[in-house]
Design goal:
single chain, alpha+beta, 2 domains, six-stranded mixed β-sheet, three-stranded antiparallel β-sheet, disordered C terminus, Nudix hydrolase domain-containing protein, signal, NUDIX_hydrolase_dom
């Protein structure tokens, strides 16, 4: 951080003074250098502490972005929950479902933009007081999904802390005590001055790739995972069967393989971890069914898949949650959806039993929207298999 450069210089000066105390320079000179370093470091630390006490992160709780999403509302692409909002990227989704896309990796490290950097460390410490956060290596999208043939999708390695301190900062306005105007308006991180959604290539955010999957058991029940209050993404809400962030280990072909396969690798890995499944429980019965931008999370890219399992709900639910997942997953349930003829993309949460609708996360609502849209295609092979499993049952499990 630039505002800590003086601190670093002071520390170096202190170390230099301590080191030269045992070398050729006069002891008095070394002692003076060390004391000067201590003074400089102490002054800078006190200055940073005083400034941090003046910074305020004001969450825009009532911001539904309705004024900026009107063009998407008209085409039915907006997906809302009681807490969050995002959009289904229809053109990109259609392209991914009909054309193979290659994946490439930009190895240039992600760096936080200077306009955000001055607040990112303070915000990170603010979030860490409320959530369990591990600074693992993830994958972000470095450019928008292509909609023309022979164009690759480009990933970039990103630390999870970068996602927290940039994407999760966007629902906040940053202010300073004594100033009337915010130092940073979170909306400006998502939309440009014309009110248009920022392209990923021009975004200042980490844009970690979110992946989730709707998994159905042999008797046609949908698995749902309740997240704990310690989760950074959707604390205390009901999520899809598996959901999380894409990681470098998910790359198909070492980064030069299929983009769709990479997305599925990540989604199915999250499913295995959160529902305690094995690879053979769903191998060969999964597809990517949707791509969206989660506006409430800095318009981060979010993908959803569908998986048909080879296990019944009883076989899955009798397994305990893995010890390393207990900080993130509170419970796993299996519910039965209404008959397919009753599905509506306008109200995707109506597919869930009433007890789950008020607590649905945005990835869950988005996934259900994509599923409803995809099931309207009578030629979809995986959809035919799912429909045969769903049957005509309408009871909640």
């Amino acid at each position: 951080m630039r505002r800590y450069q003086v601190t670093a210089m002071g520390v170096c000066l202190t170390a230099l003074g301590a080191a030269t105390a045992f070398s050729d320079p006069p002891t008095a000179l070394s002692v003076v250098a060390a004391l000067a370093g201590i003074v400089v470091s102490s002054m800078e630390i006190l200055s940073n502490v005083r400034r941090s006490r003046k910074i305020r992160f004001q969450r825009r709780e009532a911001d539904d972005y309705r004024d900026l999403l009107s063009r998407y509302e008209k085409s039915g692409q907006v997906v809302r929950t009681p807490r969050d909002v995002g959009i289904r990227m229809a053109a990109e989704t259609d392209f991914l479902q009909n054309h193979p896309v290659e994946a490439e990796v930009n190895q240039e490290p992600f760096t936080v933009h200077p306009h955000i950097e001055q607040f990112s460390l303070l915000f990170l410490s603010h979030r860490m007081r409320r959530s369990v956060i591990f600074d693992g290596l993830t994958l972000g999208l470095d450019a928008d999904i292509p909609t023309t043939p022979n164009m690759p999708a480009i990933f970039r390695p990103v630390r999870y802390y970068h996602f927290v301190s940039t994407n999760l900062l966007s629902p906040y306005d940053v202010g300073e005590v004594g100033r009337q105007e915010p130092l940073l308006r979170g909306r400006s991180l998502i939309f440009d001055s014309r009110g248009h959604l920022r392209q990923l290539a021009l975004s200042r955010l980490a844009n970690v790739v979110g992946v989730s999957v709707l998994a159905f058991t042999t008797e046609g029940k949908l698995l749902l995972a309740s997240q704990t209050l310690d989760v950074a993404g959707s604390p205390g809400l009901v999520a899809p069967s598996g959901s999380g962030a894409l990681e470098p280990c998910d790359l198909a072909g070492g980064g030069a393989g299929s983009f769709q396969r990479t997305i599925l690798n990540g989604a199915l890995r999250e499913l295995r971890e959160e529902c305690h499944l094995e690879q053979e429980d769903f191998e060969g019965e999964a597809e990517v069914i949707g791509y969206g931008r989660w506006i409430s999370r800095g318009a981060m890219p979010e993908f959803c898949g569908l998986a048909l399992l080879n296990k019944s709900a009883d076989q899955i639910l009798r397994k305990p949650i893995r010890p390393d997942e207990r900080s993130f997953v509170g419970d796993v349930a299996a519910v039965r959806l209404p008959p397919v003829l009753d599905w509506s993309a306008v109200n995707p949460l109506d597919l869930l039993p009433p007890t789950y609708r008020h607590a649905a996360s945005w990835p869950l609502a988005f996934g259900l929207t994509c599923l409803v849209e995809k099931m309207q295609d009578p030629s979809w092979d995986l959809g035919k298999k799912l429909k045969s499993r769903l049957g005509g049952g309408s009871e909640a499990a």
